[in-house]
């Protein structure tokens, strides 16, 4: 068991619920449909990775893989949150960095799973 990964997952999950509620209630009338969709994408990916981190932690995968997923998710989702709220389009250039870190993290999970035979 990797308690660090489980803690990461719990933190992302709790924040994801709070941000999802904030988006649904406080931002619904303040943002355009496109901005709200960006915000919701950030929440969705944050929740996917929160659940993944709980599973990764329960399976005992490395903290490196969990950290890549956490950092990737923070960069990916946070850039979408700020983009949605501020409307500053250049922030969209940061989002793919988070996505690449997530992909690398998933690759590490795959490698570790195959290595454990």
Name the descriptors:
single chain, 117 residues, mainly alpha, 81% helix, elongated
**Succession of helices and strands:** HHHH
Overall average pLDDT = 92
For the terminal residues, how far apart are their CA atoms? Answer: 17 Å
- Describe the biggest sheet? none
| Proportion in β-strands | under 5%
Shape: elongated
Secondary structural class: mainly alpha
Oligomer: single chain
Compute the number of structural domains: 1
Q: How many runs of DSSP E, i.e. beta strands?
A: 0
Percentage of residues in helical conformation? over 70%
InterPro entries: DUF423
Subcellular location: Membrane
Pfam families: DUF423 (PF04241)
Membrane topology: Multi-pass membrane protein
Layout of helices and strands, plus pairs?
Blueprint: H1 3-25, H2 33-59, H3 63-86, H4 95-115
Give the gist of this structure.
Helix content is 81%, strand content 0%.
Describe the structure.
Belongs to the UPF0382 family. Keywords: Membrane, Transmembrane, Transmembrane helix. It is found in: Membrane. It is a multi-pass membrane protein. InterPro entries: DUF423. With 117 residues, this protein is mostly helical. It has one domain. Helices cover 81% and strands 0% of the residues. It is built from 4 helices and no strands. It has helices spanning 3-25, 33-59, 63-86, 95-115. Helix 1 (3-25) runs antiparallel to helix 2, helix 1 packs parallel to helix 3 (63-86) and helix 3 (63-86) packs antiparallel against helix 4. The longest helix has 27 residues, at 33-59. The two termini are 17 Å apart.
């Amino acid at each position: 068991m990797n308690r660090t990964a489980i803690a990461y997952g719990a933190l992302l999950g709790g924040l994801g619920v709070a941000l999802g509620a904030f988006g649904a209630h406080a931002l619904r009338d303040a943002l355009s449909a496109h901005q709200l969709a960006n915000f919701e994408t950030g929440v969705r990916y944050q929740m996917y990775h929160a659940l993944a981190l709980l599973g990764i932690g329960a399976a005992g995968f490395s903290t490196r893989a969990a950290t890549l997923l956490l950092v990737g998710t923070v960069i990916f989702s946070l850039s979408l949150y700020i983009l949605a709220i501020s409307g500053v389009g250049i922030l969209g250039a940061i989002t793919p960095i988070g996505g690449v870190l997530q992909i690398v993290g998933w690759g590490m999970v795959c490698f570790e799973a195959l290595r454990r035979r």
